[in-house]
Amino acid sequence: MSVEIYHCSQKLFKNKGIFVAGYLYWLTDGDQILMFSPKDELSLLIAVPVPRAEYRSIPQMCLGEYKGKLCYVVVSVDGLVLWVLEDMFNCVDTGTFSSSRPARGQTSVISR
Questions:
Q1: Residue 24 CB burial class (10 angstroms; 0-12, 13-18, ≥19)
Q2: Domain ranges for the chain
């Protein structure tokens, strides 16, 4: 049993947790995601790719799973963005899909 105590000053969003590849993740009310490994009893705060303050409106966020990895989805008036976490310990993410709000009848997709 681990004796580690991890202090997180942010609150967790209710019903915003997910279990992916052996890890539990929760969105916080800050610009971070809380990760917990039940196997190793290890916790970690992961910075989100883009802070909320950089959006023109208040975005809606959620966590999901994409190809066995954690994904972070942001929807705002600026469009929809999906990031996939490649390496949680080095905070490396892949911008998998981004779409600005297209004109009616048009589609806009940008990958990085």
A1: middle
A2: 12-99
- What backbone torsions phi and psi does residue 31 show, to the nearest 5 degrees? -95, 50
pTM: 0.70
CA 110, CA 112: separation in Å to the nearest integer? 7
Adjacent-strand bridge partners of 86: none
State the Cα–Cα distance between residues 77 and 56, nearest whole angstrom.
7
The answer to whether the CB of 35 falls within 8 A of the CB of 46 is: yes
What is the per-residue pLDDT across 46-77, written as a single tens digit (0 to 9) for each? 888 877 777 777 788 889 998 899 998 888 88
Closest CA to 45 of 89, 95, 93, 3: 89
